[in-house]
Specification:
single chain, 751 residues, eight-stranded mixed beta sheet
């Protein structure tokens, strides 16, 4: 059919535009969409929030009040009786100290001490007897009050399922201690030395008593632990000291017997004497080596002077010798006198000869005296060498004597060393024993109570306001989450935009839901009854979309179908035919031969219809036509129900009837059957100019509609567009502000 091509082109263009629009929309996060989702589910959210508030209020009102008593304890990691230097080494492990104290405070041992101190076992047994007697007497309210008071002493399992009378005292003690352990809370000790201990109970007096008893038990445990440790140390030291004393006495007796037997003196005295002698020899050796060095210098100086050289007179020993000094002075004076006489008298003068003879005599005496000094230097050098050698021999002899002494007195030295070691160990143990005795008498504790627990006047739990607020917040949050989950799981159509996006088909408009009452007509007759109503305007919008789907050649025969039944297609077909009747002569042709509804909805009593015309039972269409007052809208109903509707619609006779009707009517609206249950619409889609696909708002599933559209498109049906039926505009406004919902605009004419 050539006249449908422009419509298909328009549909394709609209589809492409919708795709581009949807892509651009997905790139931007629409926060308003989330808000609209919440608005759509506001009543669900309010209902869930109210239910949560009611549950929270019930929990808050029925919860048993709990009281918390607390005390503060100062815990010093350093023991008061300990050496501070020793503990300073262990301060790197101070953080482990507090973790250990937390475990001690929450231990079963401390809890059992509290049970014994407060005599809780007897109190528990008395209360159980009282409870049993009151149960037998039938005092329900008294029992309930009593259970509330003693429930803190019982675990939930033991208080309701076991008879405590059958337990032994030890079993009850362990049970009560376990309950106390479970209600203790210990904090602090990280930024300061303060430890906070708290206990929770239904009885405020009981909470205060238990926490105070717990603090005292913890302090007593520390004192007893330290005292027990000191006593154990003291006993061990005392035992070891006795053994060491006996060992010292035995070693001393053995040393004394050995000295008497060998006739030896103390090796320390012998060693001291030998060391003193060796030290003296070493001092003499140093002195002799010093003298030898000095003598050697003088000796070498003399040896290096050539014989007859006057340099010998400049030597230190020569200059230091008084005789040689005088002789040097005398020789110098005589030499000066000889020089004077030589200038005055000459060499052969008797005075000159006498003076030179005296000078030679003085020089000979000086030489003799210098020779003596040189000989003395050689003698001193040799003597110094001898002294050094002799002292070295004496030192070597002394060392040999000392070594010999050590070898000979090895046994004695061993015995003396054994005695000394035993004495030193014994003395050290004596000092440690005295310190342990001092610590055992020191009763101060490193743990002190700063604040004792007082009886709480206000319950710690439940915080009724907080419970109600949290319940409201939870209900609100859960309602919002449930709204988004419901939105995500909802796979139906809500708006025309959704229809266009999912089905890739243009939307022609909507048919709003009609509330039927005494003043309004049925939905099927809305357009006929009031052509100015909002419903009629929606039908006019659909009609306009159909006319402009192909301006040059608008569709004349239009099939209205849907995916499944009860989606409002018949209502739309009836009203659309009424709208087209205002433009020209129009025929509403009911081709739903399986489940017809037009005759019933329009009040047509004629039972003959299309099937009768096709089968030949009726020879003329005028016999089965239903006409309105203006003769612009004619209706042909289904007629007699046949067994083979698909074969009837596929027949050549039906095509002839349809072609004959097209010559008499300007527009023909076909009310067809649904697409998925039967194949009738697929056959009819190829015999008309265009198809309108009806989708029921919030009812038709997306996958179902897609399947129906796909089935029609595979058969080359010209689907002009879709219509969202039974839509509620005020609900659609939750999906976007552009969905306008209002009444008729203008003044309605008087009837």
């Amino acid at each position: 059919m050539n006249n449908t091509t422009p419509g298909k082109a328009l549909s394709f263009n609209n589809t492409m535009n919708n795709d581009v629009t949807s892509i651009n929309t997905e790139e931007v996060i629409d926060i308003g969409q989330y808000w609209r989702t919440i608005k759509r589910a506001k009543w669900l959210i309010i209902l869930i929030t109210l239910c949560s508030l009611l549950v929270g209020g019930f929990i808050a009102s029925s919860a048993v009040p709990l009281y918390k008593a607390s005390s503060k304890i100062l815990a010093d990691p350093q023991n008061p009786a300990a050496d501070r230097n020793e503990q300073y080494i262990a301060t790197a492990l101070v953080f482990l100290y507090y973790e250990t104290q937390y475990e001690i405070i929450q231990s079963r041992n401390i809890a059992e001490v509290v049970v014994n101190k407060l005599n809780l076992v007897d109190k528990y047994k008395e209360k159980q007897k009282l409870l049993k007697s009151e149960t037998t007497s039938g005092f329900g309210s008294t029992i309930k009050d009593f259970k509330t008071k003693v429930s803190s002493l019982l675990t939930a399992r033991d208080s309701t399922k076991k008879d405590a009378i059958k337990f032994t005292d030890n079993d009850i003690r362990i049970m009560l201690a376990s309950n106390i352990q479970g209600n203790i809370e210990v904090t602090g000790g990280k930024q300061s030395q303060i430890i906070n201990i708290s206990y929770t109970s239904e009885d405020p007096q009981e909470a205060a008593d238990i926490i105070n008893a717990l603090s005292e038990a913890y302090i007593q445990f520390g004192l007893e632990s330290r005292l027990g440790e000191v006593k154990n140390t003291e006993a061990w030291l005392s035992e070891q000291s006795s053994q060491l004393k006996q060992k010292l006495q035995d070693s001393e007796a053995k040393l004394s017997a050995y000295r008497s037997q060998e006739g030896l003196v103390n090796t320390n005295q012998q060693q001291l004497l030998a060391n003193s002698q060796l030290q003296s020899l070493n001092s003499e050796l140093i002195r002799a080596q010093t003298n030898l060095s000095s003598a050697e210098e003088q000796y070498l100086a003399v040896k290096n002077i050539e014989p007859g050289s006057r340099e010998i007179y400049s030597l230190g020993p020569v200059l230091q010798n008084r005789t040689t000094g005088d002789l040097v002075k005398n020789e110098s004076q005589l030499s000066q006198r000889v020089n004077e006489l030589f200038e005055r008298y000459g060499e052969k003068h008797p005075i000159m000869i006498a003076a030179r003879s005296e000078l030679n005599s003085a020089r000979e005496s000086l030489q003799n005296e210098v020779n003596k000094v040189v000989e003395n230097i050689e003698k001193n050098y040799k003597l110094a060498q001898f002294q050094v050698t002799n002292i070295e021999k004496l030192i070597a002899k002394s060392r040999n004597d000392i070594q010999s002494l050590q070898s000979e007195n090895f046994s004695l030295v061993s015995l003396e060393r054994e005695v000394e070691n035993n004495r030193r160990i014994y003395e050290n143990f004596q000092v440690s024993l005295m310190e342990a005795n001092g610590r055992s008498e020191y009763s101060s504790s490193n743990v002190h109570i700063i604040d004792k627990a007082t009886v709480p006047t206000v319950p710690f739990k439940p915080n009724k306001k907080l419970i109600i607020v949290l319940a409201g917040i939870f209900g609100l949050f859960f309602g919002v989450v449930l709204a988004f989950i419901r939105e995500a799981l909802d796979n139906t159509f809500k708006t025309p935009d959704t229809v266009e996006e999912k089905l890739k088909l243009p939307s022609l408009g909507i048919t709003p839901v009609v509330k039927v009452n005494k003043k309004t007509a049925k939905p099927e007759k809305q357009y006929l009854d009031d052509s100015l109503s909002p419903f009629a305007e929606s039908i006019n919008t659909i009609r306009t979309g159909l006319l402009f789907s192909n301006i040059d050649n608008p569709p004349k025969t239009i099939l209205v179908t849907s995916a499944t039944g009860s989606e409002g297609k018949s209502t739309m077909a009836m009203n659309l035919a009424a709208a087209y009747s205002n433009l020209g002569k129009t025929l509403l042709l009911e081709v739903d031969l399986r489940k017809p509804s037009v005759a019933k909805n329009l009040g047509i009593t004629n039972k003959l219809g299309l099937t009768d015309l096709i089968s030949g039972s009726v020879t003329s269409a005028s016999e089965i036509l239903y006409k309105d007052n203006d003769d612009k809208l004619n209706v042909i109903t289904c007629g007699t129900i046949v067994r083979n509707p698909l074969e009837l619609l596929s027949s050549k006779k039906f095509e002839d009837v349809l072609m004959s009707l097209q010559t008499h009517y300007e527009y023909i609206i076909l009310d067809g059957p649904p697409t998925l249950p039967v194949s009738d619409s697929c056959i009819l889609a190829n015999k008309v100019d265009g198809v309108i696909f009806a989708v029921k708002a919030e009812d038709t599933r997306i996958k179902v509609a897609k399947e129906a559209v796909s089935r029609l498109q595979k058969l080359n049906a010209n689907i002009i567009g879709t219509v969202l039926t039974v839509a509620e505009p005020h609900k659609m406004s939750y999906y976007g502000d552009h969905y306008y919902s209002g009444e008729y605009y203008g003044v309605k004419p008087e009837k």
